[in-house]
Design brief:
Chain lengths: 119, 114
């Protein structure tokens, strides 16, 4: 069954340092996509980065990068040079290929990691 | 550019009351979904739609109904509210067809059932 696991309920990081948020997944579908979302205290869900199962290179978006290790089924988010504004809840999510000739709309989320950036 | 708009932002219901959470998107997205967010559980899929007239159940569909008569709108109905439905509800939309398009979320509706 499709599953996302985030084992870190909370983390601290010093401002300007890098931090890695862990995410492991389970799927039997060879075609899937992995997503990271940020949820600040204001509550909205903000898309950060995407990694496809067939992508050869790790995804990067500005200070965000995804450490994709397919054999280990992990998709860790790396935030470089942390900023105070990075303090938020971070969710890893996965979508499998589906039955409607494309992808399902079933985006499965992990339980999230609460990141606190300290000055 | 409004994106995904949810109304209301806050709602309090009495047990047994019914209501509809509204969701509208102006991006011409095929796919729309409803999620609920509970503490310690992440977001869980309630219902989703891959186009007008097509809906399907997600992970936690019981107690909720949906319909999709237009591309733009995807309302979520609670027929008889229960305290267990106290949660934050998110509507999302995305371009359909592949795994790699991100979902755009509304601002959320915080629902309390007393």
């Amino acid at each position: 069954a499709q599953k996302i696991t985030q084992t870190q309920p909370g983390m601290f990081v010093q401002e300007k340092e890098a931090v890695t948020l862990d995410c492991t997944y389970d799927t039997s579908d060879p075609s899937y996509g992995l997503f990271w979302y940020k949820q600040p205290s204001s509550g909205e869900m903000i898309f950060l980065i995407y990694q496809g199962s067939y992508d050869q290179q790790n995804a990067t978006e500005g200070r965000y990068s995804l450490n994709f290790q397919k054999a280990r089924k992990s998709a860790n988010l790396v935030i470089s040079a942390s900023q105070l504004g990075d303090s938020a809840m971070y969710f890893c999510a996965m979508r499998e290929r589906g039955n409607y000739g494309g992808a399902t709309n079933k985006l499965i989320f992990g339980t999230g990691t609460l990141l606190a950036v300290q000055p | 550019n409004a994106g995904v708009t949810q109304t209301p932002k806050f709602q309090v219901l009495k047990t047994g009351q019914s209501m509809t959470l509204q969701c509208a998107q102006d991006m011409n997205h095929e796919y729309m979904s409803w999620y609920r967010q509970d503490p310690g559980m992440g977001l869980r899929l309630i219902h989703y739609s891959v186009g007008a007239g097509i809906t399907d159940q997600g992970e936690v569909p019981n107690g909720y109904n949906v319909s999709r008569s237009t591309t733009e709108d995807f309302p979520l109905r609670l027929l008889s509210a229960a305290p267990s439905q106290t949660s934050v509800y998110f509507c999302a939309s995305r371009v359909g067809g592949t795994v790699n398009t991100e979902a755009f979320f509304g601002q959320g509706t915080r629902l309390t059932v007393v």
